[in-house]
Protein 1
Amino acid sequence: MIGFAENRSIATVALVVRDYDEAIAWYVERLGFVLTDDVDLGGGKRWVTVMPANGQGAWLLLAEASGETQASRIGDQTGGRVFLFLETDDFARDHQAMLGRGVEFREAPRFEAYGTVAVFADLYGNLWDLIEPKRQG
């Protein structure tokens, strides 16, 4: 299978949200993400993406719920498990900044074999890990 799947990556993850504008505001103001796209697709739909300001990692597609089934998944896309992992090179700096911006952490920071981590919730209750991985070597 040489050549197959060599140059691929997960580039965008869809996150079901209640409202485009409230989601944009939360991710930009609370997490310091940047708005990368906001394209009107017609019929009330938009292509809205945000990503960490440093340009690293996957983009989040903020997908406004369409209908009751999608709306029922807002804030619980993974059945209560941590959904996304926000990696940092300085846990203490980002933890303090996020607390100062009103991000709700569900636990105190803890030190694990894989790094320093704490669970936080986004504006809809989706769970995230803020994590500074333990560096090898």
Protein 2
Amino acid sequence: MTTFDKPALTHLEHIERLRNRNLLINDDDEVIDYLSNISYFRLSAYTRPFYLPNIAEHTFIFGTAFSDVIDLYLFDKELRLLLLDAIERIEVALRTQVANTLAKHHGPYGYLDQSIFDNRYDHPKLLELIASQSKGRDLETFISHYKTKYTGAPKHPPIWMAVELLTFKEISLKI
């Protein structure tokens, strides 16, 4: 069994380590600023494409600068944000389509009818999830309003509220 024996390093010690591995650093203060906001450990993942291949010791390809590592990190961050935006749009569209389709064909509470679901789906579990989320999310304005105003309505909310209570996974797997 190998023992973990890596010491915690200061920002200046990290800079020294990077320089010893042949990374070009022009401005120590800039690197310290980045390391104060992005951990060395996280940033180290973005250094890997700049290492000389097939060498056990991490050594940077000649001419690699700290700015190259930061540029890759920022590119990854921007790409991640673009993908999250696209995923969010797809998720909202899916919730909308599920709610609109079920409401149009089966009414606001049609999802309470087990017969409209494929028998492979665990309908009781779906209703349990919605009921559980409804109870736990009383702080949600729409659930609080529904429970207060529509006291004679079913305890489960209409489908357009229900889909907002479920996770994306629960909607895509259960409905």
